[in-house]
Amino acid sequence: MAELILFRYLENIMIDKKRKKRLTVEASYPLSSTMQRIEFSTDEMHYFSHESAGQYVKLMFTPAGDTDLALLKIDEQPVLRTYTLSAVDLGNKRLTIDFVKHSGGAHLYTDESLQLSRASGGHGHYFAEHAAVGEVIFVRGPGTIQAIDLHREWLLLIADMTAIAALSQVLKQVPSNARGHLVVELASHLDMVPWLSAMDLPKDLTLTLCLRGQGASLAETVQQLSWLDGQPSVWCACEFSDMKAIRHYVTDLHQVARSDCYFSSYWKQGVTEDGHKGIKQQDKESAKLP
Question: Is the pTM of the predicted complex or chain greater than 0.90?
Answer without folding.
Answer: no
